[in-house]
């Protein structure tokens, strides 16, 4: 297992009127982050605000290519990003203790914070298809070129972890600098991870390791 220090490429925020950055996702053009009562779109290069939509948005956020999925306490809402309308809701597997959210393979992947788990669920029904165990509190979850990554935040320390999608074995760790917690996590599909900074109100871009891109597939 390789361990290295995360390279912070950019830091954005804090933003006026926003105290917390929770879930994070990327729609191919903008980074979206959840901030309690809104989901906010910002430019991925400058961090400049683009727009926001009202929503219950206290944890993970994901994008399936058309819709935003948002953890809202004990449920996951499917939202039309153009209108902000909630189109459907399913039960969240952690029953209100859910954290990160990601979209891959036509399914949702949901972090359960204190349960130290990642659940793969049916996006139509919320049925749990499989569960991966972790040994740390799970916050953000993302996929990058077929690789599963999740963030941890425990004992005032955060890491980004590349794990085996079948066994949960940790393959690589990026250690965040002291004082930089990670609430949400998303890949831009290239060389960056976007990390929510929790109560710091900040959003950070972290370099994705070359090894991750070479070994993907």
From TrEMBL:
Entry protein name: Glutamine cyclotransferase
Organism: Devosia neptuniae
